[in-house]
Amino acid sequence: MSAQSAELINGDVSFWVRDAGWPTPRAPLPGPIDVDVAIVGGGMTGLWTAYYLKQEQPDWEIAIIEREFCGFGASGRNGGWMSAEPAGPFRRYAADRGRDAALAMQQEMFGAVRESVDVARREGFGDSVDETGLIHVATSRAGLARAYHHVEEMKQQGWGEDDVHTLTASELNQRVNVNRGMGGYSTPHCARVHPAKYTFGLAAAVERLGVRIYEQTTATALKPHTVVTDRGEVSARVVVRALEGYTASLPGERRTLLPMNSSLVITEPLTDQQLATIGWGGAELLGDTAHSFSYLQLTADHRIAIGGRGKPYDFGSNFDRRGRTAEFGVDLIRERLTQLFPSLQGIGLEQTWTGVLGVPRDWSAAVNYDAGTGLASAGGYVGHGLSGTNLAGRTLRDLILGRDTKLARLPWTGRKARRWEFEPLRWIGATGLYAAYRWADQREDRSESSETSAVAKIADRIAGR
Ligand SMILES: Cc1cc2nc3c(=O)[nH]c(=O)nc-3n(C[C@H](O)[C@H](O)[C@H](O)COP(=O)(O)OP(=O)(O)OC[C@H]3O[C@@H](n4cnc5c(N)ncnc54)[C@H](O)[C@@H]3O)c2cc1C
């Protein structure tokens, strides 16, 4: 019986966590403690920061405070694209700090993919990552024009001839047989990640270094040199906020990062015949060029995980912690899967889940440290957090150690985006923009024009993207 007719598991964190084996949570904070660095959030931002700081300062006491278990958040739920695409628009970093600074950021993102893969291999969780590359596919003329234009822009933003290639329709179809695939572009700078195995592996590596990880412990307030939790206070010289999409749940932070939903669906394993029909032999990560962007992964055990469409935002910056996906979201994602691969019509879906990522008002990630208050933070990667968190961890290390390095001078340091609007404006804005993008996609899919829809252009301007 196909899993479509069996019960679709909805929520329950993610397929990745179930597949990696549900973890037994580590012990909670035993009571008040005093440490050098307290990191709040056991996702990849918190883990990488601990990993790099502890190596430089083995004598420092470093504690991670995690509400559930490491990998419960976006780090254990994502699409598994570890890509070199920057966690913020080049033009914005260039406008703020100059073109050279934005170019440096791009080079560091290439390095972050390499470093994230190398560490996984060195630390014994290399089986969670594969360097398969990435393909962006256009299924409309307007999408193709955008793809080619984007490659021209990338070449001016530090991507060399070997870093990115345009694809014609026939070049694309030799690599993956996408319905209405008109071409696109590809880059080798992307690794396929099993998010839960990766994050669990990183947490174990951090613990081996001597970092203390307290799970099942909720931070209720972050103050200079203090983390208030439901299990006692943590006094620390440095307090790192590494909560990304969960930042809004702290007092006073509701409008700092918008908790944007992203939902995925994963299929049952494809048969050899289904695989042969779609011809995706290189297992590259796959994305489209639609405005309501979809991202796909062909997993090592031949399932397709596809995400991107659905309910973008819950009123009041709320979200469902276990990650249930609204039924219409599942329908939209299923529809997109069979638009791209009609031969998979009727394939069984095994699980769906939703996670939150943190979106700053200017859509640009930021890494900050104030030596006076000891307060540090990193996040707002807008869907590019897998390699972004690695770079953020190394950047925070340098900032906290007071080092004047090239990382400490990257254009995402010392940034402060303005706060999001009050409700109901946030909800109206987020849902209205996504409705506009869906409408624009439908128009472009039916049109022979290479022009991007005017509605999408206006939506981009309003969103500030
Ligand atoms: C569905 C989805 C798909 C994505 N796909 C991709 C992708 O393919 N490629 C990519 O590069 N990026 C992707 N992203 C983004 C990427 O996953 C994130 O940017 C990245 O994982 C952020 O890591 P983090 O450690 O900052 O946050 P998180 O991983 O969210 O970690 C925050 C942690 O804080 C904990 N926490 C929350 N509140 C408290 C509290 N009060 N006290 C203590 N702990 C608390 C949470 O339990 C959580 O473990 C995706 C995100 C989502 C949601």
In words, what does this structure look like?
The chain has helices spanning 15-20, 44-56, 90-97, 99-122, 141-156, 169-175, 195-208, 272-278, 327-340, 385-400, 425-446, 454-463, and strands spanning 9-10, 33-40, 62-65, 81-83, 129-130, 134-138, 165-168, 183-187, 190-193, 212-214, 219-223, 226-229, 232-241, 258-267, 285-288, 295-298, 304-307, 349-359, 366-370, 375-379. The protein starts with 8 loop residues before the first strand and ends with a helix. Residues 1-5 have low confidence and may be disordered. It has 465 residues and is α/β, with parallel strands linked by helices. The longest helix is centred in the first third of the chain and has 24 residues, at 99-122. It has 12 helices and 20 strands. The strands form 3 sheets. A 9-stranded mixed β-sheet has the order 1-18-14-17-16-15-6-8-7. Helix 2 (44-56) packs parallel to helix 7, helix 3 packs across helix 4 (99-122) and helix 11 runs antiparallel to helix 12 (454-463). It is 34% helix and 22% strand. It is globular and about 65 Å long. Bound molecules: flavin-adenine dinucleotide.
